[in-house]
Prior knowledge:
By secondary structure, the protein is mainly β. About 5% of the residues lie in helices and about 45% in strands.
Amino acid sequence: MRRGWCFIAALVVLATTGSCSDDSGKQQGECARDSDCGAGKYCSAGKCETTQVELADRTRVLERDPLFESVVVGASSLDFTFKDDASKAGLKAGDILVGTASGGYLRRATSVTLDGKKAHVETTDAALTDAVKNAQFKVILKSEGAELSGTTGQSLKQKLMVTVPLDGTELSTSGDFQVKISKGSISFGPTVDLELKIVNGAVEVFQASATGQAGIDLNLSASATTKLVSKSSEIKVAGPTQWALGCIMVGPLPVCADVELSFYVGSTASISAATSLTAGFDCSTSITAGARYEDGAWKTLWSPTGSCHGHPLEVTSKATVKTDVYVKPDIKVLLYKTTGPGISVKGYLEISGTRDECEAKLGAKAGLSGDLTYDLEILSKSIIKFNSPLFKWEVDLGGLQESWCEAGLPDAGLDAGKDAGSDTLADAALDAPVDAQWDAIDDAPADAAKDAPLDAKDDTQADVTKTDTFSTPGFVSIPAGTFVMGSPASEPCRGSNEDQHQVTLTHGFEISDHETTQGEFQALMGYNPSGFTSCGASCPVEWVTWYEAAAYCNALSAQKGLTACYDCTGSDAGVSCTESTSYSGSKIYDCPGYRLPTDAEREYAHRAGTTTAYYNGANDPAKCMACSDANADAISWYKCNSGSTTHPVKQKPANAWGLYDMAGNVWEWCHDWYQANLGSSAVVDPVVGSGSLRAVRGGNWNSTAGGMRTAFRGGYGPTLLLNRIGLRCSRTQ
Length: 733
């Protein structure tokens, strides 16, 4: 199975050779190191060459220095040997060191110790934006033969298309549950494109996309000897296999990459009694999917197609069955031995239903899902890490419902059954293109890390009496009052950004009783940016930036003849907004028009006088990141019940103040900038007036149960486009 990969790196605006001279008068052919050439030039084969890959001032590619002899790459250190006194190399703490040894390294020097011709350098990982001022290039990793080429003329032909046989693979061999793949295979051969543009030391453009061919064929047999509440297993059936692609020179910059490929098979089952079943499916898919970062925002890229077929399904005795099995290839691209983007394609079969003495109600679904993983600290410390579902596609393979007990013989049992107790859902072949909804950012926003539950301790909440005052139709009046914001240390699933503190709101306000819908946004703004348009006009609008949310509130103010709370320029998706100069900071509470609720107002309205984790009660400490929490199910559309889509507003029960979908469906932008640490001091009419992220509240259709808690909060960049973020407007009364 061990084969090679193709690694192509090409400059979009690549190095060109031309006449050059620097301030010292050196002419072409007279350089020994990069410092002998002027700005925008580097030394190659004794000549100064022009390049648009400009290294940062402190970046050192010592392997190209005439003094260099060798380097030993350690986990957190570099040991250099030079041909002469090491002090002549001029190494200093703070230098960014880039090289090709041991598959490539990109490090920041934290200390330098010299000993004759040797230099020991303690290091930490660095990012490309530390090493490069300006650059624009593209890297292509191909699954079929092609050439590796760079400015130094290297070439290499490599190839990869991996097929792993799964015949006889045992997923679980415990005494109460056995799962075995009687016959099957999985194949995968993606092509990954990486594009990077750095301007003035900051990432301006980054794109990672993959075109993958995946084939899955699986026949499964499973048996349970007793009742199973929930049984899960996953095994690695191949890998990780790593292909060292090596390094090429892009101008003066060595670009180094590796590919790591693994294959997994897993299953989950809940079975009410001893039984056995057989089933199978086959899927094939072609995916072009990924994401592009440009102008401070992420945009998703996708074009998946595929088909799945079900194989015969049999359940041999009385039982309620819910089980699924999946196979998954997982590929990671490592830049300088550090995790970059990765993609996985998961093919799965889900079986559910009941088989009793007289009747079988069985069904099966087959599907494909794709995920793109980013750990982009190798590019820039300022770009967020995330794991992103790219698409999910599922087809119903049909169901079987048959009865065979004769009238008056309810206890006839299996002996009176048709074919003595085996029912089959025969081939339910379904071919259909993937029609999927997806997004490009992980559900966990900035600083929403979960802490372990602590000892139980009740928080306190000031009494708030809800009084009816005049409010706009579709809005609910919220009284002024005092409450405890955040979560107690004893609350399961709480985040580190939920400091408890007393908040007093001296102004009453009205807030929409529902999330702004696609129909409302379309009617007022003249366009619908949503990704889930098939959900309908009564579903929440999403795929809106903070700026678009602010512009919508302004438009609502204009419709009602009220003063705008935001200053906006541009239109539609190109709009940009700031707080009105008349209502900046805490003055926002004085604005008579519609605006986004502050972070504090949003939690106050969400709680509606409650102190529990959800507004309808406590949360299950065992379900923070799992399915399914009964109280969360009751009030919200989230990962466990949403079906990976938004839902029409007002389908779940409102809180005590008549507000719907305060948890789940879509995140909602808040007026404030996001502040992670709120502190414990009491505050009055708080508003965070500066920052880099805007606060979001409420969780969304892909959040886990922990994200449905009233105190759950996070922040995203104001230009972020995501099919999980919407809005609702409010107004001071």
